[in-house]
Structure formats: C-alpha cells, structure tokens
Amino acid sequence: MLDLNPGLMLFVLVVFFSLLFLLNQMLFKPLLKFMDDRDSSIASDLKNAEEILGNSDELHAKADAVIAEAKAEANAIREKAVNEAKALAESKVESKIKELDEKYQSFLSELSKSKDELEKALSDQLPLFKESLKRKMSNL
Questions:
Q1: 27-59 burial, b for 16+ CB within 10 Å, e for fewer?
Q2: For residue 72, is it left (φ>0), alpha (ψ between -120 and 50) or beta?
Q3: For the whole model, what pTM was predicted?
Q4: What integer best gives the mean pLDDT of the chain?
Q5: For 96-99, which contacts have Cβ atoms below 8 Å and span 24 or more sequence positions?
Q6: pLDDT the model gives residue 78
C-alpha cells in the first residue's frame, strides 16, 4: 500500500531545510530587522517629542513671563501718561482759575470806579434834581 522511499524523504527533508534557510535569510531576518528599526525609530521619536514638549513648556513659561512683563510695563506707561495728563489738566485749571480771578478782580475794580463816577455824577447833578423837584412840586 504505502511505500516509504527513504531517498525521497531525504530529498524532501533537504528541500524543507533549504527552504527554511532561504526564508530565514530573505524574509524573516529583514522583517525582524525592519521591525526592530521601526521600534527604535518610534522610541527615538517619542524621546524627541518629549524633549520638544519640555522645550515648549519652557517656551510657554518664557512667553508668559514676557507677556506679564509687557503688561506691567504697559500699566506703568499708562499710569505715567494718566498722571501727566492729570498734572497738565490741573495746571490748566489753575491757570484758568488765576486768569478768571484776575478778570474778576479787574471787573470789581472797574465796577468800583464806575460806582464812584456814578456817585460823583449824581452828587454833581443833585442840585439840578432838587430844583427840578421843587418846580414839579410847585406846579402841583
């Protein structure tokens, strides 16, 4: 029924091992090398990403510090400008108050002079008024 042929078995065994050797050399070793290279590439990329993340954290911290410093500087500049504007406004108000006070004093002095002149003019014409009043009274 079944004949065992040792030569054929030996030949199949040689072909099997030679096929294993060839597959190992041409397929399995390059595939394993590719997988190892890929693993090392992934590990190095992860390491680089962690370094970049660390650098970005430092850069974010530096950027936040620069922004805080710029905000403080802007607040100082704004406060200085507000103080200068207030001082300028106060000086303008003071000068306007002085000017108006001088005008008021000159107005009061002119008013006093006008009053004196009016009183003098009225006192000079008082006899004429008395006379005219007597005439009107006598006509009644």
A1: eeeeeeeeeeeeeeeeeeeeeeeeeeeeeeeee
A2: alpha
A3: 0.45
A4: 92
A5: none
A6: 96
What is the percent of the chain where pLDDT is above 70?
A: 99
For residue 114, is pLDDT > 80? yes
DSSP 1: -
Cα distance between residue 81 and residue 73, in whole Å: 12
User: What's the Cα-to-Cα distance from 40 to each of 24, 44, 47, 112, rounded to whole Å?
Assistant: 22, 6, 10, 105
Q: In this predicted structure, what is the pLDDT of residue 52? A: 84
Residue 111's nearest CA partner among 119, 99, 123 is: 119
Cα separation, 38 vs 30, in Å, equals 12
The total number of residues written for the chain in this structure: 140
Q: What is the mean pLDDT of residues 75-102?
A: 95
- Helix, strand, or coil (residue 39): helix
